[in-house]
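Incident log, structure service

09:12 report received: a user says their structure output differs between two submissions of the same chain.
09:20 pulled the input from the user's history:
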Amino acid sequence: MPLWSRLRNVFRTRGGDMNTELDEELQAHIAMRADQFVEEGLPPDEARRRAEQMFGNTLLVRERTRDADVAQWLDALLQDLRYALRMMRHSPVLTGVVVLSLGLGIGANTAFFTLTNALLLKQLPVRDPARLVSLELGRPGEANWGDSFTNPLWEEFDKGQDIASGAFAYAAQSFNAGERGETRMINAAIASGRVFETLGVEPVAGRLFTAADDRRGGGWDGPVAVLGYDYWQRAYGMDPSIVGRNISLDGKPYKVVGIAPASFYGIYVGLRFDVIVPLATETYRTSDPKLLDARSNWMVSIVARLKPEWTQARANERLKALAPGLFEATVPPNWPPKRVQDFLSSRLRVTAAARGLSAVSDSMRSAVLLLNGFVALVLLIACANVANLLLARATVRAREYTVRMALGASRSRLLRQSLTESLLLALAGAAVGLAIAQPAAQALVAISGRSTAQMSLDLAPDGRVLLFTTVVGVFCGLLFGMAPAWRASRNALLPRIAGTAGDGKGRLRACLVSLQVALSVVVLVGCGLFLSSWQKLGKASLGFDPNHVVLAKVDLSTLTMEQDQRAEAVEDVRRQLRGAPGVEETSASVLTPMGSGMWSSLVVGDDGKGGRREHEIYYNAVSPGFFRALGTPLLAGRDIEPNDRKSSTQVAVVNESFVRQVFGGGNPIGRYFEEGLTPSKTGFVTHKVQVVGIARDATYRELRQAPPPTMYRPLSQARALPYVTFAVRGAGEMEQLLSTVRAAFASSGNRFSYTLQTYPMRMRDAMVTERLLAALSTLFGALALGLAGMGLYGVLAYSVTRRSGEIGIRMALGATASHIRNWVLRQSGLTVLSGFAAGLLLALWLAPVAKKLLFGVKASDWRVYAVSLAVLVAISFAASYLPARRATRLNPVQALRHD
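09:34 re-ran on a clean worker, output below:
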């Protein structure tokens, strides 16, 4: 019957009317065929009989016709659902265990998918995000293109481009939300004037800034700011009167002109701004009128909205023509010829920005994707466990199935009924999983964040998350329900009635346990690898000692004084901190290891073989006592001293990597290198710097990266001092040291705004990805072991019960308790070993996927696999012992009588 006829029958009158119509149609066909037989010469009675014989049982024909009716199918489905609900009520413990197991498994998968969705799949909540593109700069043939630009490059692009209806520059920042004393850092953004116009964002209150506000020093309202909705709610209690009032950002007043909508967090996924200010007002905030003119200050990303008639391919072709002129106009003046040539040969391109730009590290994204695989394995283990439970229930219900088949129920009918029960359980588990997914995802974000910058994501479930949860629920229902359903529907009537169904079901359950063990091996190996990696990373040689150190970052940009005066003020505070009780040493520096900043400088050195080459070197400006405060050993020479002033000889302490790269090794104490590369009419001039000391290599930005070549210059000889960080080393508790630092700043009159952080907390932040992988893989490993242990226990307990007669015969024939116990344990061992062998091969095949996330440990480390085997053996023995002991305590007479 055509589909439209089936659908039409749904809305037709049920019961007698339809039956009457079917009977009338059947009788008409029989009459027509009887007439044909009469015409062929048969008597009317014989013709009628022959026609009815051809059509067969009219009742069966009518029922088959009704089977084509969708309403009939829906009726059967409702019957199956009602029966499934009744069976769930009759077995509340089994139902609860299954729903909770699946709920946890599906919930974990949904939580990670929610996180993945927010990180990688959701589009920006702005007007027509598909038209947004991000500008990138790179060289042809290179894989890594960058999305950071200087302000001069941005201004030239904005003036010369014709591919976009709107464009803006954007950068993430951190501002001090206060004027003096200890302040709190807030997430900030700086953006050019057309950011809101280009994105199509409307304010919740007040107005959003425009191009008229994006002027150095501010527009008609002076320097203005727009608050993020969450920050408005958190800091000001959603007080609408904040609009029009001034707030302090880095000690400077900004007028709040509006509130951004709750859905708009900026363009960096994972980083929600608290306040956003016009780009041009950066000269006002930093008191640096030349900041935005610097051609070497790579500070902004560029996003544009393509015109309707422009595709990305066409835009990239246009950028090929525009790029040379843009680069010619913005060449950094302090670059040597080779670097200038590389810059001028670069190209521009656009890439899709509908999903925003990511503020989450590549390692964190890789970790989230890998953990998605872990939770999927745990869910498969849970499904195998549920399948074992349902197989056990099918054994109990074997007589029920036999009776139903004897009464005429078809195999397909039993299969459908059993699958309906499984799907209902799975969907109930999916509902539980959906309920716990968002809190779980929020917890994941919380433990993935840093103490100084909490990751912020839009975790609200959308259609994609709901579809994922539903699909996973249905998949699980089919996965764990298929084996019990197939077993329940097998036409094995006589063996079931006789109670001798054979051991096929036992073998199937053992295979499911082996599958659980195999998947558990993969999870355990991953857990072991990530735990080892985390431990080795924590014990890695850093080149400095972060213990018992407090960091106080001070913003100097708000001080209206010359650089020499800033250096003197910093030294005054350093001496005051150094003299505080409980303080062993104090230093001040522009940068500290494992911080977020990086300064570099070009130097020219003599490699000792007559060769002179340019090198890009890490640059840091430090005070006396820097190496003692951070616990970095000086290997040769001397430290930076108080008499190393601007007017004295330019000096530097360099690290081991600097010596190898710039001087080619050896002892460079007393030797000079050239630093600065300042342009002049006759070429590039430099100033000579004398090496006075060699420090041990120290990790500066990434724990996994080799220490970079670094030079340490005196603060008094620094090229700029926008901020410094005091490192205070003490012998007491961290809280006591923090109080000491606060008291020292207070006694100095709180001339500065500062933020505090302990060095151990910074190191904890540096290992957030490794900590996340180690913690969650351990959790998943424990879940996998627990589920596998439960499955093994269930199979052995079932086997002991089912084979109690055989055990009774063995004992009657003289088998001792130890023989029976070993026999049961041998069954367990075979199941576990077969699963471990399969899991070992699978783990070795999958291990390279995690290679990039490991540190100091190989993906094939035999010790990890050996420990995994030992843990599995221990869990297997614990799960097998109780059934084995029960088997030894069977009474042979009772066992034989029961059989």
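09:41 both user submissions now match this output. Likely a transient worker issue. Closing.
09:42 reviewer note: Confidence is low (pLDDT under 50) at residues 491-502, 678-684. The chain has four domains: 3-68, 129-354, 362-538+768-898, 557-751.
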